[in-house]
Amino acid sequence: MAKQAPPDRARLSDTSNPMLTLNSPYLVFLGSTTNALDAKTGRGLVDWRPGLCVGQSRLPGCTVDLGLPDMSPAEAAAAGAGSLVVGIALTGGAIDKSWLAVFEQAIDAGLDIVSGMHTRLASIDSLRTRAEAAGTRLVDVRVPPTDISVGTGRKRSGQRLLTVGTDCCVGKKYSALAIHAELEKRGIAATFRASGQTGILIAGEGIPIDAVISDFVSGAAEKLSPDNDAAHWDVIEGQGSLFHPAYAAVTLGLLHGSQPDALVLCHDAARTHIDEYPLYPIPPLDQCLESYLAAARLTNPNVKFVGVCMNTSGLTKTEREDLFAATSEQLNLPVVDPVKTGVAAIVERIILERE
Amino acid sequence: MAKQAPPDRARLSDTSNPMLTLNSPYLVFLGSTTNALDAKTGRGLVDWRPGLCVGQSRLPGCTVDLGLPDMSPAEAAAAGAGSLVVGIALTGGAIDKSWLAVFEQAIDAGLDIVSGMHTRLASIDSLRTRAEAAGTRLVDVRVPPTDISVGTGRKRSGQRLLTVGTDCCVGKKYSALAIHAELEKRGIAATFRASGQTGILIAGEGIPIDAVISDFVSGAAEKLSPDNDAAHWDVIEGQGSLFHPAYAAVTLGLLHGSQPDALVLCHDAARTHIDEYPLYPIPPLDQCLESYLAAARLTNPNVKFVGVCMNTSGLTKTEREDLFAATSEQLNLPVVDPVKTGVAAIVERIILERE
To answer: Which residues 102-131 on chain B approach chain A with CB closer than 8 angstroms?
Structure first.
């Protein structure tokens, strides 16, 4: 267990918070994906920064459509694009060889390449040499800052909300962005804090928590939401799930370092098991709340849930209303679908809890 | 969340499992430490591999004594030493500038430098160039393997015991080594699995869990204790504590990936709060057991505690016997001090549970 980020992390962190200097607008690259979940990075950009997305680049076989005009890198450059942004986040975290031809065309067209994959763009020699020659940049969003210390456990000033999940890809980022927007709409000072590559692209800053060395995860989370005005809300994007056999450690470190005053549980109403882990059922929601509260109380004994965000895209309006009524009564919490109903009910609960 | 170890980890992993090629015996370097806890690496080597330790190297002001003859690097080399091993693990995880003169003397004397610190020896230019010139090696033990994937959650064959703690530095490594030795003494097939730098120096292999990128922690733990014969025991060195505001994420990832059948709780009878975190009290032991079981059941619903290992160095024999009797009755578990009483009672419980 150690106090300072090791030098290798430091060397890799020269491009931390690249969004602060990203060249927009973006050509969103979707590869040949046929899985909408894999395109969540591109979808998040289109949902939250539509003005920054000029087009999409898709390889043969790609069935995902973000509703943007299809463009070649050259066409995007002609339309004013500054960067090709990798809009897919494969479970692999690796860059597929079939993508490189388009990346090279983008470099030749003068575009930067922006990626949130684990694989570093600069680690691909053909891209690095080509970009150096063309004078364009290879920007890896998934790079932690240089100056992360281990967690202190010290209570920080200001209010914090963290979205937590029953699984990965259940709307933790979307819910946090929606709650942040609703708070601002009501004139409540708030900041969205991004903990993943898509959120960082949207927010322009943040820390890619799952790329931080495990010894420093809670310290990174503490750094992500620093001391603030007593009434200010940091709305923190959650990661993973306490019930995920691979990623619960990331979830717990983010939970402990965030010291949330308020938690929002995110769930996909159609999900019965951890995605891609059929032997791992998602616990009943009341058990999920108890597990998260028990873990969160270590660093904030006053933590409370203020709502549940559900993805009900597969349900009819009646099915959704029945499910929300039953769940809300069982858990004594507002239950919403950020896409279908908005998150006003959760923000009203937050305001109520503060009075 | 990603599937493959990113290339930067791979590049840093060229010296993984360095013990397999370490040059022994060792000159154990203690710097100028005055805190015996900081010297746990050197102490562990002397306790478990005395035959490999020819001497100790101490700077002015060092008050810790491992009972080895004090030697200069040149004297150690003359006595046959092959490596200077950094025997202190500062909370800092960094290499102190005041150590470099001795490291340079060691290199000049033909010794390898072996370190488990977060700071990479090779990142210090003066050492790297000197070692290259002298033809000696800079071996960083704290380097994860190249081929770590994310956790699968797949149940593996064989038996697994994990030592878990109420805090850091409460004897998790020592207890695991003692239980492993006791199992072998009784002819039970067992392997000690090291998860920290000291354990790796002792075992000759292992994975430095706290240096693994958080996305891969449980996957690394799965790799550390692979499928084995049904009756074989992997005795896995625990890390951190679920009750530690900085390191609980490391603890949880190791717990989930280890899928332990048996847990042993390690505790320092004199410890009331997390070391260096006075605002974080250690929960009552029965609550500690429940918290660990609740977390461990995610990947192994049949997990059980088989004993408690306590550091009672501050107690009289009578005080210890009274404490053990009361604790054993309360928890219905064997309670031992691995140093004072040995761990036979825990191994007997393990055998009983299997019958």
So the answer is: 117-120, 123
- Distance from the Cα of A168 to chain B's closest Cα (Å) equals 9
Report the residue of chain B nearest A38, measured CA to CA.
Answer: B1
Query: What pLDDT does A146 receive?
Result: 73
Residue A135 and residue A172 in one domain: no
Interchain contact, B150 vs A1, CB within 8 Å: no
Are A29 and A90 found together in one domain? yes
- Final residue belonging to a domain, choices A140, A169, A200: A140
Q: How far is A319 from chain B (nearest CA, A)?
A: 31
Which B residues 25-44 touch A at CB under 8 Å? none
Q: Does residue A232 carry a pLDDT above 50? A: yes
Q: Report H helices in chain B.
A: 7-12, 40-48, 73-78, 100-108, 125-134, 172-185, 197-203, 217-224, 248-258, 285-296, 317-331, 344-354
- Residue B274: phi and psi, rounded to 5, are -60, 130
What's the confidence (pLDDT) of residue A59? Answer: 97
In a domain, B117, yes or no: yes
Both A79 and A121 in one domain: the answer is yes
Residue B328: give its domain's CATH number: 3.40.50.300
| ipTM attached to this prediction | 0.84
At A350, the amino acid letter reads: I
Cβ–Cβ gap A249/B252 under 8 Å = yes
Nearest CA in chain A to B197: A1
B85/B112 same-domain check: yes
Using DSSP's 3-state secondary structure scheme, residue B112 falls into strand
- B contact residues 225-284, partner A, Cβ 8 Å cutoff: 239-240, 243, 245-250, 252-253, 256-257, 277, 279-280
- Pairwise CB contact (< 8 Å): B218 & A249: yes
* Six token digits for residue A150: 């281990």
Write down the mean pLDDT value for chain A. Answer: 91
Same domain as A56, residue A164: no
Domain that residue A184 falls in: 159-354
A6 shares contact with chain B (CB less than 8 Å) = yes
Between CA B282 and CA B245 the distance in angstroms is 11
Q: Mean of the pLDDT values across residues B130-148? A: 88
Residue B3 resides in a domain: no
The enclosing H or E element of A305 equals strand A304-311
pLDDT digits (tens, 9 = 90+) for A131-145: 999 999 998 888 887
Q: Which residue in chain A has the smallest CA separation from B168?
A: A1
pLDDT at position A15, please? 38
Same domain, A109 and A164: no
> Does A259 score more than 80 pLDDT?
yes
The residue among A116, A41, A44, A52 whose CA lies nearest residue A82 is A52
Task: Name the percent of chain B in helix, strand, coil, to the closest 5.
Answer: 40, 20, 40
Distance, first Cα to last Cα, chain A: 41
Give the whole-angstrom CA distance, residue B39 versus residue A229: 42
- What span, in angstroms and rounded, lies between the C-alpha atoms of B167 and B281? 10
Least confident stretch, A115-129, A300-314, A334-348, B335-349: A115-129
pLDDT at B10: 27
Of B110, B140, B170, the last residue of a domain is B140
Closest Cα in chain B to A155: B279
The phi and psi torsions of B269 (rounded to 5 degrees) equal -60, -20
Q: Report the pLDDT averaged over residues B152-179.
A: 97
Report field, pTM of the whole predicted structure over 0.80:
yes
- The residue ranking higher by pLDDT, B308 or B95, is B308
Q: How close, in Å, is residue A316 to chain B by CA atoms?
A: 31
- Number of domains composing chain A: 2
- Mean pLDDT computed over every residue of chain B: 91
For residue A214, give the nearest of B94, B151, B217 by CB distance: B217
Chain A residue nearest residue B255, CA to CA:
A249
Binary contact (A211, B212; C-beta < 8 A) = no
